[in-house]
Write a structure and sequence with these properties.
By secondary structure, this protein is α+β, with helices and mostly antiparallel strands. The protein is built from 7 helices and 16 strands. The protein folds into 2 domains: about 170 residues, Alpha-Beta Plaits; about 160 residues, Alpha-Beta Plaits (2-Layer Sandwich), CATH 3.30.70. The longest helix is centred in the C-terminal third of the chain and has 19 residues.
Length: about 350
Amino acid sequence: MLTTTQPYQCLETFNLSRFRFIISPVERLTLSPFKGSTLRGGFGTAFKRMVCLLRRENCATCMLRDKCTYSRVFESPRLPSGGAERGASHDPHPFVIEPPLEARQDYLPGELMDFDLVLVGSGANYFPYFILAFEELGRMGIGKGRGKFNLVSVESIAGTAEGNGQLLYDSESQTVRTDYKTMGYSDLMRQVQALKHDAITLHFLTPTRIKRQTGFTFTSPTSGICEQHLAVNVDFVTFIRNLLRRLSWLSELYCDRRWDLDYSGLLDRARRNVHTVASDLRWYDWGRYSSRQDSRLKMGGFAGSITFEGDLAEFLPFIKTGEYIHVGQGTAYGLGKYLVEPADGIR
């Protein structure tokens, strides 16, 4: 087990980078109300068009799969370091695309639309590829009618006030700066200090797909055999178990640290010491079309708010980090986004 005084000190090497992409339509853009699927799918198509050498339809059969930048970022095949005990065929992606949350669907030439990108740890090495891919996507077009757009600028928003980002790219200079700031342990801990340690409210802003587990033989958040079902309403133990699984896996793959925590003890304290006192979580139906599977996939999840009370101190650093990297399935699309605030509503 870790010899540190608090379990959350395993986050000491965890870091992330945040960017804001600003685009301007050249033609009318007509997008779905939830734009994450369009942005993520379009990015993947443009990215593959740029870097794929063999033009294979199926990356799983490609001899370059484990070395290909596209495969590593977008397909994320499981590497040996990922641990076969997780029972997954793919590692988690090193990125999260956060689409605008407005329901607006039409954007006209000359207007601006922005979305955010989060890159975890060494995933930031791929930052220039994201700029090139979204430039290419602008030429290809997105949404209904394949409307084209220009990538106007990209800003770093890690460690800066909203609206006061560090300019990293603009369409006029066509240059990319990589001297951006990252968000690390000390930044997160400063933010945690602004939270109450005995009561928080989580506001789930996009559909959140968390699997409730039954018949679970527990050894760690990333192992065990279980029957899994999507949760409509979530308790604290289910939430924190899913969050720890995601954080520990990302840390091992992209932040060069494998966690060795007393997960059972941590979850037992979560079960005994933290309780739900209010919830208005509700199911939100959403679906997306998968061109690779040639079918429409159901991607619904719960949204709304839930309030927890109890001894939350040792869990808050994990919860605050999850605010940036999301929780559950479909995080690359922007699913599982939540905000955490004191239960009295004062951040």
